[in-house]
Amino acid sequence: MPRGQLILIEGLDRSGKSTQASYLTSKLSPSKLIKFPDRTTPIGKLINEYLTNKSFALNDQSAHLLFSANRWELNEEIHSLLNQGYFIVLDRYIYSGLAYTLAKHDFQGEGVSSGGSKKQLGDIDWLLGPDKGLPKPDLTLFLTLDLQEISKRKGFGDERYEMEQFQARVKQCFLKVLPKEDNVQIVDVGGKTIEQVSEELWNLIVSKSKHIQTNNPIELI
Ligand code: FDM
Ligand code: MG
Q1: What separation in Å is there between the alpha carbon of 25 and the centre of ligand 1?
Q2: GO cellular component terms (predicted)?
């Protein structure tokens, strides 16, 4: 039996990523939606504390490693579902891991990052290290929109990272870390309705999934 496909939806905050990821999951069968961070696991609970409590003392390097460890908590489940022929839709994954930490490298704003040495945060090899060996997405769709439009959309809550100047930095970092490959597509959702974006993503999945070699084992990062 051919394996299933690993489809990653990445995107900026307020890009409609989670809405689109659940919609795509409902159109694919059999399918499972996996959201990162998964806040229900032992490590996910710590991450939730880190995101929601700005006085939770965790340095940036440790936080980065926890987000990766959270992906490792789901590693066996992802392999097992793929081997059973499931489509897995991921809502955030390794590129969020890279972009958000990289964005902290020289960001000075309050409440985002810890003090101390930040040398490693600017080193892509260091950042990617802990994710090496995780399953590599077959297809990545990155939802982007311009910053002006982000600020017009519904306001942020008050989790860590939810502030406009930081989001500008995150966007630049995503564009820097996303590989320039045919199976990584950037979709500008600006000015489009939810339905228009869904249709565009669906068309991309249909055209790209023909080229996914599901008789070969999933590649690893
Ligand atoms: N985030 C998410 C990271 O900083 N690193 C990661 O590896 C991942 C998966 O966590 F600000 C950040 C991105 C976001 C925050 O994500 C919570 P959700 O999608 O808003 O729950
Ligand atoms: Mg959020």
Answers
A1: 20
A2: cytosol; nucleus
The residues spanned by each domain of the chain are 6-209
- Tell whether ipTM is more than 0.90: yes
Ligand 1 neighbour 100 (Cβ under 6 A): yes
Do residues 83 and 135 lie in contact, with contact meaning Cβ atoms separated by under 8 Å? no
CATH T-level assignment (fold) for domain 6-209:
Rossmann fold (3.40.50)
According to DSSP, residue 196 is labeled: H
Question: How far is residue 184 from each of residues 36, 145, 161, measured CA to CA in Å?
Answer: 18, 16, 25
Ligand lying closest to the C-alpha of residue 14: 2
For the Cβ of 161 lying below 6 angstroms from any atom of ligand 1, the answer is yes
Give me the residues paired with residue 141 across strands: 9, 185
Q: Which atom of ligand 1 is nearest to the CA of 36?
A: 9
Which atom, in ligand 1's list, is nearest to the CA of 64?
5
Which residue, by CA, sits nearest to atom 11 of ligand 1? 161
State pTM to two decimals.
Answer: 0.96
CB 95 within 8 A of CB 178: yes
